[in-house]
Amino acid sequence: MNADRKNTREQDRKMVYELDGRPSLSTAVPLGLQHVLAMFTSNLAPILIIAGVCGLSGADTVTMVQCAMFVSGLTTFIQLYPLRLGSKYQVGARLPIVMGTSFTFVPTASAVVADVIDIAKDLKKDRHNGWEEGAPDLVVSADSLVSAWYVRAQVSADQARKQCGEIHLLARSGAPAGEAAFLTAPMTQPEIQEKLAGLDVGSLFRVLA
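Above: the chain sequence. Below: its structure as C-alpha cells.
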C-alpha cells in the first residue's frame, strides 16, 4: 500500500509539468489556489487605484472589480482551452496562463481621470490648456542660489582658509599628499569660483541642506 501511494504521488508530481497531465484533486486544488491567490493582487490593485482616483462609490467599485475578475477568468479559460479557427489557427496557448489587468495604464489613466473630474466639477467654466509666456521670476538662475560647497583641491588647510574664509575640513584615509577636502560657508557660485581661482580644484559640488 505504501509503495502504491508513493508511486501515485510521484505520478502526480510528474503530471504537473506535463502539457496534458491530469493530477489528482489533492494535487491540483492547492496548485490552483496558488494561481488564484497570486492573480488577486495584480487584478484588484489597479482597479482599486483607479476607483479611488475617480472617487467612485462602493457599489461602482464592486462592479469594476467583478468585471475585471470575470474578464480575467474568461481569458484564462480561453488560454487553457483555445478557440479553434480552422485547422491552422487558434486563440489561446493551451497552457495554464493566468490572465489579468495591468499596472501599465494606471499613471496615464489616473492623470486623465483627475483632469476629467476637475472639469466635471464646474462645467460652466471654460478651461484652456496651452503654453503662455512665463513670468520673469518663474525660473531662478543657479548663480543666485546661496549654499555651502564641497571642495577637493591641491591646497593646504591654511591656504584653503585664506582663500575661502571659514571652512570645515574633511579627512579620509588614503588621501593624496597635499590634497584637502572641505566644506565652505554658504555663498553663491560666482563667489566660490572667484575664491578658488588659481587653485587646482579636483571636485566642486553644491551642498543642499
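The helical segments are 2-16, 25-54, 58-80, 106-120, 157-164, 189-195.
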